[in-house]
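Sync notes, pocket subgroup
Present: LS, DG
LS reminded everyone that the earlier model was apo-only. Rerun requested with zinc ion included. Inputs:
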Amino acid sequence: MKSSNSGYTVRCIICDTVNDERVTSTYCTNCGGVLTVDYKEAREEIQYPLKNIIPDPLKTDFTSLKKLERLSELYEADLYAKLELENPTGCFKDRGSYIEVLKALELGADAICLASTGNMAASVAAYACYFKIPCFVFVPEQTPDAKLAQSTIYDATIIRIKGDFRTCELLCREFAKSGNYYLAGDYVFRQEGQKSFSYELIEQGAMDYDYIFVPIGAGTNFAAIYKGLVELKAAGRIDTIPSFVAVQPEQSSPVVEGIFKKEKIIKDQVNTMADAVAVADPFDFYKVLEGINETNGHAFTATENELLSSMKEMTVEEGIFTEPACAIPLACFKNNLDIFKGKKCLFVLTGTGLKAAHIVAKYSLSSPILSPKLERIQQYIESGFPDMQKNSWGQSRDLYSGNVTLDENHEKLYTEYVNGINKKGKTLREAEIKALKSMVSATDADLEFPVEIVDYKITMRKHGLVAAAVKMKINDGEEVVSLEQGVGPMDAVLAAMKAETDSFLALQILNHEVEILSPDTDSLVIVTLTLEKEGHEFTAKGASPDTIEALIQAFVNGLAIANKALAV
Ligand SMILES: *Cc1c(COP(=O)(O)O)cnc(C)c1O
Ligand SMILES: [Zn+2]
């Protein structure tokens, strides 16, 4: 690879060791800490850690800075939004991918690789494609194709791995070392690209914000915006830096918790509808902590419910449809009006709502199919359903039908669920009751079940493998025990069930989703499976305090649903 540049150094923020960028752009070789770029001199214009800078070929203009007129009036504050969703792939990450890809080219890499299922993959793929360097995207097996649409059309090579996201990350890191490949991600050069946010902002008006709200996942975007402002201040272009407000979903808030504890927190698992910020191990935590401390900032969280209603409010009042992650600033602002009333606040709206169509579908009632007759349409409009559909949004994170009364058959089904859950020594909370009722009301109450699961057992094996033994009865026949292995307990149990049921009804599992209704340990878990057979898709759900049992229920329900649907 080519020689290192002058004009800047790559330093570890923990031990101050200067690292050689030809050796690492990820972790400090001395202590494993996170790196930052120090420039030898302060300059008025933006500096990048590159020998030659080619103007961004995909981004032709600044992202808009918009005054939020109606919300400002409503909440008696001076509110602005920077529309980062206007970036080429619909997300701010393009600012960083642009510099990462140029850096990979400068270092003479043969390809770029990364592990991501979302916005990062789409963005790196777009720039790698334009600059004609191969791009490898590592994703877990369950990733739906729709999520990979952008990476696919930008010609990335999709590496679909049997296993979860963590497996992909580790494997991708190994892959990067196995060749002359540049590992992209939330690393030091991405931050240098993303700081262009601040240089744009200063061109768009006075930097007299009291607060800048940034939704946080790994913390890299926050760190980049802050670094941009620090550099602008060092160059004399601004006198003061606004206070930063770090915001996260309550159900995925290791950074906010860490700020209060003043040390990095790593979660086992996080779960929020704002999947762009669902990061359990926040890479740039210490940079965020510094930004908060140095600017007398704040850190807040908002509930899933609050995200839903703020997302809707921003769309309806200001016409801006964002991802759920971008609803966190408004939600946290509203939760803390005592601090923010009368202040000039900037919300960083990180990504477009067009990528979150599945969230809208999930939290709204779908529209019935009408016969093509004008009077039927008239009747429908007057039926009250369209109003209920609009009003149901964001009332509760559980479907509106959670409030409806169940008919006799569904009531029976519901009682069976509750009895099963009570047997496990758990009582249901208000929100869980609603979610369960809504799930049951959407279930066909007279299904015939082709299999009955009698018992199951899970054993851990070497190398992360898990063995599952599932005892079941098929079509009221003899009990059989099916043994299979998998990369995790869910995978193993599914494999064991399928090994028996595939012989009479082979369902392909397109996707599984695990929803934990509250962050504590005995929360109710709802598993949703998307299944496919001969071009027909089926959705099936199961609920239990135990994830595996919810999965088993969902799969058995899926068999019954598919059986019935395919029989007619
Ligand atoms: C990645 C992402 C974030 C979080 O940014 P971090 O740099 O990981 O903190 C927020 N919003 C959207 C839309 C994202 O894609
Ligand atoms: Zn170090």
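DG: Residues 65-89+191-360 form a domain with the Rossmann fold fold (CATH 3.40.50.1100).
LS: The two ends are 64 Å apart (CA to CA).
Action: DG to write up.
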